Amino acid sequence: KFEMKKYLLLAGVFTLFTSAAQADGWYEEREYSRPYQNDGYYEEAPRYIEREAPRYRQISPSEARRYRERQYTRSSYDNSYTRESANQIRPYIGVDVAMSSMDFGDDDVVKDYEGGDNYFKDKLNTFSIVGGAKFNKNFGIEIFYQKSGEEENKVGDGGYGYDISNIEYSAYGLDFQRYIPIDQEFEILASLGLAQYDFETTEQYYIHVNMGAENVGNGKHDFDSLGVRLGIGAQYNLTEHIALRGMARYTHMTDDEYIKSITEFSLGLRYMF
What is this structure's pTM? Predict the structure, then answer.
């Protein structure tokens, strides 16, 4: 009886290992082969089939190919699984706030004031509205509209008079983006794009007259330039739909008579559809 029990136990262990090896040969990715009931995303995923007793079903080559084309990523927010096709296009919208620093050109309108002070403020706060699409996990495209605040600067007042100067700009353009996934939540970004920048400046000139200041004139200049934008940054996917993005960007102006370049650091949110 003891020998019979030993042989039956060995036969049972052998059967279990044989079944596991057989299942392993039929399913290339066992970690995703569990049944997910009531989930439409997994209707075509290979999974164990139970009939009268637990058995395994060998999938067809077409089913295996469709299964391999799917990527499964885990959401850190709701602890659920979502499907993202390798070629799925995911549109998104977002907003950015940034600090922009300008490098002025050599034209008399913007060149340094006496004593080395900038005639205009060289740092501006900006706000951007963006829209884009991520074509797959590696590439995307983004369009944007950016508007800066208006910064006032007072120069002069060495006893004779002073000037009040203001500068602001708006921009719109297109960036091509390269994503480098680090893990399911964190991605490195690089961008290359073009944008049209429109600048507006105003000046008010004052002189001291009879213990007061008298406005003796006003000036206004508008100028524009095409900018080539290079950026690098990172994105953290808080959930399947919401991401936090930070970027550092350098823009070289093709017409550098007034503004040579703009360097900016931005922080923003993206909502993925």
Answer: 0.67
